[in-house]
Amino acid sequence: MSVLIYAENAEGKFKKSILEAVSYAKAIADQNNTNLVALSIGDVAADELAALGKYGAEKVLNVGNDKLKNFVNQAYASVIAEAAKAQGADIVVLSNSFSGRGLAPRIGVKLEAGVADGAVALPEQNGGKFTVKKTAFSGKAFAVVELTSANKVIALTPNSYKVVETGGTAQVEDFSVETKESDFKQMLKDIVRSTDKVSLPDAEIVVSGGRGLKGPENWGMIEELAGLLGAATACSKPVSDADWRPHSEHVGQTGIAVSPNLYVAIGISGAIQHLAGVSSSKVIVVINKDAEAPFFKVADYGIVGDAFEVVPKLIAAVKDYKASA
Amino acid sequence: MKVLVCISNVPDTTTKITFTDNNTQFNTNGVQFILNPYDEIALARAIELTDGGKGSVTVINVGDATTEATVRKALAIGATDAVRINAKPHDAWFVAKQIAEYVKQNPFDLILTGRESIDYNGSKVAGMVGELLDIPSVSIIKKLDATDSEATVEREIEGGKEVLTIPFPFVAGTAEGVAEPKIPNMRGIMSARTKPLTVVEPVEVKSTSEIISFETPAPRGQVTLVPADDTAKLVDLLHNEARVI
């Protein structure tokens, strides 16, 4: 028995959310007095692979198959399940990324495993019970789920577990697996990346704008503030519904749930659906001219004032802070 | 083209979530249940793709008789017919197994789900159904176009998107962007009463997970208000007190 972590790469690199998942998987391996094996699929340099040892992987299995260079949901799920079987791993950990969400259920079926998606804390293992806390009701609550199957699949929510360096180097091994043709029915035509921007699900700081900004032409200051803070930009539902901003920026119950260290809400009143998507943010700052806006009730810091006056001043203050830092 | 849309019956988005029985049961008292918003998107796109005699749309729900209003709503919006698997949806695995068993007997070209249900947010049913049927599945799509034999979809990835072509049959979870939800018109509402709704008894499934309890997020402390002309103070607090910048 061991723990297998699928270390998903983005253009050959492991992002922070993946290192969090490796650290998390290492802690689960420690709970069970067993070792952690990482699996990487696609083009990743040897030193990047070996560096996973720093976060607790004892061994890294590298699948360098040309057919598996780009993500193919079905085929990747097969490879991960095969690796779990080959390593005798009864717990498989993934990041609850967009790809992870596609993989976890398929791996669960292949391994006859219960799946805990959106995990936010380490499992608790008491008296033969294995329970995991996960998000539910779109951020309005958490559910504690017992996985009753022998094998288990856990997908970790980004930004909910700290990266922990334990300091080893991992031994990298090639792992070859037979692929079946029927796993390659989907064909990748194009990958479009907006490389100049921080991706919203991964962001540690999010600057978000609402209807109070009055129109898409006023997003310049939101983008400027986000740029200064190294933040991703986001918006409320009315804003994306009005096509002021793309749907991919919509944070809330029917959009993306985020859990950044800092969420700055500008001109957003704080409807219950929006609050659901941001409730696991560590610190919330609200800027709104309406002192009665419900968002202030869940905020840590607030400024009551007109966004068009406050945000330029905030940008100036952040510039001053950065100049002095 | 035959499209199957998997629908969930979920608490309305304005619901304040509370629990009973020592936080082990979701408190449904006074809660309005609705068609899962992401499933509405799937249903709307399915109707568009089959419009003008190009196919049919079946909706399937795993639920007891209390979900029937939601199933009828889907028929009113424009589904051709409906199937209800007569069982409480224990978990995603249970639901996926029921749907897959039904599809084995009644094949479809395209199976759509919402990207996730807004109650348990698993986004697992699409992938599990795909695996059980050994057909492709795409977790979260933002766009879906179809020809007779294949579809082109845009899949969301962190900081971008992938464009994929996939031959039928396959399963996909739809998100915003795929279609605008449709509002039922009077003709739809009237005809929904007479459209076929088949009730099917569930197959037995070995459970792999149980919800033990629920928790609500810890309440936040009082907000610290900063004067509008003292943004430097806010930056100072974020740096020195909150330590987030």
TrEMBL record, chain A:
Any single GO BP term: fatty acid beta-oxidation using acyl-CoA dehydrogenase
Biological source species: Mucilaginibacter conchicola
GO molecular function, one term: electron transfer activity
InterPro entries: DHS-like_NAD/FAD-binding_dom (IPR029035), ETF_a/b_N (IPR014730), ETF_a/FixB (IPR001308), ETF_asu_C (IPR014731), Rossmann-like_a/b/a_fold (IPR014729)
Keywords in alphabetical order: Electron transport, FAD, Flavoprotein, Transport
Cofactor(s) needed: FAD
Family: Belongs to the ETF alpha-subunit/FixB family.
Comment on bound cofactor: Binds 1 FAD per dimer.
Gene3D superfamilies: HUPs, TPP-binding domain
Domain Electron transfer flavoprotein alpha/beta-subunit N-terminal residues, every copy: 3-188
Binding site for FAD: 211, 267-274, 288
Keyword hit for Flavoprotein: yes
Protein name (database record): Electron transfer flavoprotein subunit alpha/FixB family protein
Keyword Flavoprotein attached: yes
PANTHER family xref list: ELECTRON TRANSFER FLAVOPROTEIN ALPHA (PTHR43153), ELECTRON TRANSFER FLAVOPROTEIN SUBUNIT ALPHA, MITOCHONDRIAL (PTHR43153:SF1)
Organism taxonomic ancestry: Bacteria, Pseudomonadati, Bacteroidota, Sphingobacteriia, Sphingobacteriales
TrEMBL record, chain B:
Keywords: Electron transport, Transport
InterPro entries to which the protein is assigned, alphabetical: ETF_a/b_N, ETF_b, Rossmann-like_a/b/a_fold
Superkingdom of the source species: Bacteria
Single GO MF descriptor: electron transfer activity
Electron transfer flavoprotein alpha/beta-subunit N-terminal domain segment(s): 23-209
Pfam families on file: ETF
Record bears the keyword Transport: yes
Transport keyword on record: yes
Family matches, as SMART domains: ETF
PANTHER family referenced in this protein's UniProt entry, alphabetically: ELECTRON TRANSFER FLAVOPROTEIN BETA-SUBUNIT (PTHR21294), ELECTRON TRANSFER FLAVOPROTEIN SUBUNIT BETA (PTHR21294:SF8)
Stated family: Belongs to the ETF beta-subunit/FixA family.
Protein name: Electron transfer flavoprotein beta subunit/FixA family protein
